[in-house]
Amino acid sequence: xxxxxTGAAGYIGSILVSTLLKAGYEVIAIDNFMxxxxxxxxxxxxxxxxxxxxxxxxxxxxxxxxxxxxxVFPLACIVGAPACNRDPVMAxxxxxxxxxxxxxxxxxxxxxxxPTTNSGYGIGQExxxxxxxxxxxxxxxxGRLKVDIEKMLLDAGNCxxxxxxxxxxISPRMRLDLLVNDFTYRAVTDRFLVLFEAHFKRNYIHLxxxxxxxxxxxxxxxxMKNEPYNxxxxxxxxxxxxxxxxxxxxxxxxxxxxxxxGEDPDKRxxxxxxxxxxxxGFKPDVSLQDGIAxxxxxxxxxxxxxxxxx
Length: 310
Prior knowledge:
Blueprint: E1 2-6, H1 13-22, E2 26-31, E3 49-53, H2 59-66, E4 71-74, H3 81-86, H4 88-105, E5 111-117, E6 129-130, H5 141-156, E7 159-164, E8 166-168, H6 179-189, E9 192-196, E10 201-206, H7 207-219, H8 221-224, E11 227-231, E12 237-239, H9 240-248, E13 255-259, E14 271-272, H10 275-278, H11 288-298
């Protein structure tokens, strides 16, 4: 099978492409390299890889490359509420319009596996797990765009959507603005962190397990298709305070406190059930503690905040 991956040199894409190649798939990787990243260099030896420097919004480019593939993973995205708020036009054209265009251009036989976000759940109810049937109530432009395009994809059929928990872990195109990555970086470099609304909870998933989920969907497409799936660590529905406690187990001189003044601009607060995808046989490999250990090692290499999106 040959797969088209847009946003292929991004935080998730650079791990996913490598994983697909190792599994024997051919990959056409499209990215505009807007962050001047050097990811995918480690994959250039592989004859199954084609890299195209281009824009996922380029209709002529996408139309041409779609003729070559059986499956599409649309990863190109302006990720996160702050980045989308900073440039709402780019966010809308990339996160919604480009995927809508792809949907219109593909043949009915071509499958789509699309990464969305469980931030669409917005503000959950205390003690109640969000399932795939929970009403979606996004509270940011980023969340709304993801929710709207997910509905369009599912209505069109022959696709799977993955509602990803907050992703963590080391990538060739590193991001320090994701919660676990950010908190661990601050623990290693500053040894101190002030939390706002420390009781807010989220779910988490390692990015190698995200790549594993994509391949799981390919392997089980006929039985899983046309459905959304939460993808996260079932044992990691944690508050920000609890996350810091986990980090502190490995960074012993890390001190954190909660400020009673100020608020978190990101109001997401929910716990998530991953039972649906687990029922298909998917099980993550990387625990939160193992991911934190990986990040601590990685931050011996990274010593400045050049990799954040915001």
